[in-house]
Amino acid sequence: MPKLLCHSDTSPCPLAHALDIIGDRWTLLIVRDLLLRNLHEYKELLNSFEGISTNILTDRLRRLVQTGLVKSVPHPESKTRKLYYLTPSGKALVHVMLEIVKWSSEHVGSAKIPPEIAAQLENDPGEFVRKVLEKLERWEAEHLA
């Protein structure tokens, strides 16, 4: 397979480097599902809203693991299944994603933040982030300990 040209091969720009990792159509949606929707298994991610294909999901999960945003562990109930979870680098994307969500809600007519999330973000975005990260910590304590 030919090597894909990466921005990092030709540019020192931090945004270009970030786009090499998270700039495709699917990566941030997978991170969203791990971060906000409590989906941690391949099959759960495959059945998410947008209908990602199996080959794309497999490739993006592999890339996310290679770039250090996601890790996987064997599923406790089956050695053929894995649990995927965000690393600290992956969790740090919550702030980036919230800004993208706000921008999209304001500038893309068809994009809508679910009302319960919109209210939380309006009142105290820092508290929203704290709750999201605490929920992930509880999941990790239960499944990775």
UniProtKB/TrEMBL annotation:
It comes from the Bacteria. Keywords: DNA-binding, Transcription, Transcription regulation. The keyword DNA-binding applies. Gene3D superfamilies: Winged helix-like DNA-binding domain superfamily/Winged helix DNA-binding domain. Residues 13-112 form the HTH hxlR-type domain. SUPFAM superfamilies: Winged helix' DNA-binding domain (SSF46785). InterPro entries: HTH_HxlR, WH-like_DNA-bd_sf, WH_DNA-bd_sf. PROSITE patterns: HTH_HXLR. GO terms for molecular function: DNA binding. The keyword Transcription applies. This is Putative transcriptional regulator.
